[in-house]
Every structure is written in C-alpha cells, then in structure tokens.
Specification:
This protein has about 150 residues and is mainly beta. The chain has a single domain (about 1-135), classed as Jelly Rolls (Sandwich). Helix content is about 10%, strand content about 30%. A hairpin with a 2-residue loop joins strand 4 (about 60-65) and strand 5. The N and C termini lie far apart (about 30 Å).
Length: about 150
C-alpha cells in the first residue's frame, strides 16, 4: 500500500525532538513544536479508510519526506493497538508508546536525525512537502504489542 500526503514547510520547524516526529494538519506552529516537520497536511487519520489503517497496523512502514529535490526516509512498524484516531496529527515514535496520535512505533529515526539541509527546506513556508507512506511487507496479524491506551 502506498499513499501521499501533501503539506507545507513552516518558519518554526526546528526538527530537534529526540524521540518523535510529527506531521500536522494545523497551519500554524509555535516555537515549542520541535518534533513537527510539516504543517497544513492534506490528510490525517480520518482521511484514511479503515482498510488502510488496518494494513498500517499490521505492517512495517516507510515514511519518506520529499522537499526541494531532497528525500529522507524513516522506517518503523505498526501494531494492532494503534487507534489512529487523532483529528489533526500523525506521530512517528522511536519508542513503543501508543496513543490515538501514533502512526508507527519503533522507528529508526526521530526529527533530530533529519539532515540539516532537509530541515532548512522544511523551515521555508514557501516550500511544498510530499510525505510518502508505504507498507514494506504484507499485513501480518501476528504483531503482538500491548497497547498503552486505557
């Protein structure tokens, strides 16, 4: 499965968070949002079908950020416990923590790992960002991660 999200850069993107990175549908970003790497996203969890969310929950996932001719990829995995219900944001986590905002867990990178030239591209509000989300293997219903949700 493969789909794209179109988003924008923002002057407050710093990409300094050590454990997460986030894509948001919100247009504005305050200076404390150091995990956010794209704003004004044209898709969120509510724009995905239940079939798409189900496939993401049971697959290894690749998320590629494209900006200004550059690309940068993060890999992680879905789990059965991911609710994928947040209305405006999708979060990629290095940890196994799950909440309604989580897209994938156990990622190999966080926002602080993004190359400086990519961060500079994403910090320009005039730049378009394409985020390509792909599953890397067929659905596997054997993933057994306990949900942190109550």
């Amino acid at each position: 499965m493969r789909f794209e999200i179109r988003a924008k850069g923002h002057k407050n993107i710093t990409s300094k968070h050590r454990t997460t990175l986030e894509i948001t549908k919100e247009k504005e970003l305050g200076p404390k949002g150091d995990c956010i790497v794209a704003v004004s996203a044209d898709k969120g969890f509510s724009d995905l079908t239940e079939e798409q969310r189900g496939t993401l929950r049971c697959s290894a996932i690749s998320v590629t950020f494209e900006c200004g001719g550059m690309s940068w990829r993060v890999r992680g995995k879905g789990t059965k416990g991911l609710a994928m219900e947040a209305p405006t944001e999708m979060v990629i986590r290095k940890s196994s923590y799950e909440c309604p905002r989580t897209l994938m867990v156990n990622s190999d990178k966080a926002s602080c790992d993004m190359p400086k030239d990519m961060v500079e591209c994403l910090s320009d509000p005039q730049n378009d960002v394409v985020i390509v989300i792909e599953t890397l293997d067929p659905p596997d219903n054997r993933h057994s991660h306990q949900s942190s949700r109550t």
